[in-house]
Structure formats: C-alpha cells, structure tokens
Design brief:
Largest sheet: none
Order of helices and strands: HHH
Radius of gyration: 43 Å
Strand content: under 5%
Structural class: mainly alpha
Helix content: over 70%
Mean pLDDT: 79
Distance between the termini: 120 Å
Low-confidence stretches: 113-118
C-alpha cells in the first residue's frame, strides 16, 4: 500500500466521521424544530383562547354596565317618589305651611322644602345642605 492510498483511505475516514457528526446535528435540529413547532402551535391556541375569553368578558362587562345604569335610573325614580311622599307627609303634619314654604325661615322649613332648593350639581351648595 502506497502513501497515496493510505492518505486517500484516511481522508475518506475523516469525511465519514465529519458526515456522521453533521447528520447527528441535523437530527437534533430537526427534533428541536419539531418541538418548537409544537410549542408555537400550543401558544397560538392559548392566545386564541385568551382573545375569545377577553371578548366574552368585554361583552359581559358591557351588559353589566347597562344593567347597572338601568338599576341606577330605577333607584333615582324611587328616590324622587319617596321624597314626594315624605314631603306630603310632612305637609300633612304642618298644614300651616301649605302653599307658603317660601315665607318660612330656613330653620322653620321642613327638610323636604330644603331638598327642593338644593342644586346637587353645585358641590358647594350640596355640601352646605349636608352640613345644615
């Protein structure tokens, strides 16, 4: 066997070793890629579920807001009715005030008459009313 044949055989063995190493690395990369693909698909499904859940929560929040608004409106209506009934009861207790609440001093006015003069949009007047 000549040196050329030995060199050629050694070169072929080295190339086979390099080829085997490259094949192992390619297999590992394929496995990693497959695993990454599965993870990405799983995360995509989770993101879609989160989007769906958020849309459902938003719809429920909007419905709750509308229900709350309707409840507040009903409560304000009941409040006005109660104030009117309380005013009628207080007026029945003090018939001398009928038709003349503006002639009475503030201290003599029953509470329902004072409510009638409170501008609730004006914070200062509302605060004065609560204190008085």
């Amino acid at each position: 066997m000549s040196i050329a044949e030995i060199s050629l055989s050694l070169g072929i063995l080295i190339l086979l070793a390099i080829n085997a190493r490259v094949m192992l690395k390619l297999r590992r990369l394929t496995q990693i890629e497959t695993g990454m693909g599965a993870r990405i698909a799983f995360l995509n499904v989770q993101a879609e579920e989160l989007r769906r859940d958020l849309a459902m929560i938003g719809a429920k929040a909007k419905a709750a807001q509308q229900t709350m608004g309707a409840s507040i409106t009903r409560a304000e209506t009941v409040e006005r009715r109660l104030e009117t009934r309380i005013a009628a009861l207080q007026l029945a207790e003090r018939p001398e005030m009928a038709g003349r609440p503006h002639e009475l001093s503030r201290a003599d006015q029953p509470e329902f008459v004072r409510f009638a003069h409170v501008d609730r949009s004006n914070p200062r007047e509302a605060r004065n009313h609560e204190a008085g």
